[in-house]
Here is the input.
Amino acid sequence: MLKQILIFVLLALGGLKCAVAQEVLTLEKALNIAFEHSPSLIQSKLRLEQSQLNLKAQEASLKSQFSLDVSPFNYTRNNQYDNINSKWYANETMSSNASFGIQQPIKWTDGTISLVNDFSWQDASNKTYGGKNTSFNHNLSLRLNQPLFTYNRTKMQLQELQYALENTKISYALQQLNIEKNVTSQFYNVYQAQQDLNAARDEYANQKQNYDIIKNKVEAGLVAKEELFQAEVNLLTSESSVYSKEISFENTKDNFKLLLGMGLDENVMVLPNTGIVSVDINSNNAVKYALDQRMEIRQKQITLEQDVFNIIRTKAENEFKGNITARVGLDALGGKVKNMYDNPTDNEQVGITLTIPIFDWGAKKARVKSSELAMESDEIDLEEQKKQITLDVRQICRNLPTLVRQIEIKKKNIDNAERTYEINLEKYRNGNLTGMELQQYQSQLTTAKQDYTNAIISYKLELLNLKIQTLWDFESNQSYLPVNLLK
Here is the structure.
């Protein structure tokens, strides 16, 4: 581990060909940058806030609503013909009115109760007949409107918005998981390209050393000149490989910076934790965690709840239903304000309206059946989703021990390849091995290093995949949820 950190520091100080200071990124730091700047995650967060505001607005609409309508002044003048007296006459009217209302929706019955207070003034005159009338009117009424024999639309709309908010929270959490998966994958891609470049540079240094040895031997007449030609080819090939790996490294870093939302001109280097922590995983527990916590399952369950609402709404398209309205009020009228309450009038009104469907040629029955079939299909999707989750988790649990074993094998391969290369390098120096044969051992060493890096990356990514599949962090042995879905 210390050796790898030293290599990374040297790479940061030496750089490739760029003098710009490098920013060293750990995986945790890279994830924090992505969570803050990722455009897709920002959009998902905006949708979450929008759903929260929609639910807040709906809850606010269930509280008492106050309204005030004021018409300060109205003036009208009409000319009309009197058929009895055979003459035209003109009416002039001036008026003003105000209405104050309090409306209270009843969540549990889907009804509405309201208190309305109307006050108006009117001054009417007829210039032809010389008549004039001034009146003040005050009307105070309590009104009730209550649907009958139908579903509660207010409660259903509120519940749908609650489901929409929960669904948006889940989508936001899944987007975070997707960002974490992509960033981790790209992070290790950069690390892999970085390691490939280091291996290519090591190989170039070895080839340069070998070339110098052969050159000295050729000049001393100890080996044939053809060996120098082969050593030169090996050196040029190694140099070309370094250049190719540098390009691949820079391209991989650009893709990584784009994913994080960083500027493409920034120079970065990754510093991963390549330590392997042995994790004891029980397959049955992992499956249980996944089935209990996977958010996709909850999304399917929300879809089923919405299917129930669709069936209820479809059945109500042509249903027997009713509505009851009731009104009680006090009406006061007078020519002056002070005497308008001398003889107030009581007003009462009660009415029931029924809607009775007769015949719709089977349209309602067909629509309801279609909605029920859609729900049945979603139920099958839910069960298949559970099966697929169980299958995926079991496969990951089987793969992890194999990947750990592969890391041990690859590490052993590096040790063997290094010893083999050192032995044959000595033979090469003594003239008992050709440059082409030594190149094969050098390639074996480079391949062994790359395989070891790939094995570590595969294990890290598979362990992350298990965490995402089960929403359980087996390294810390605790539940893993990107957001609190209960808020």
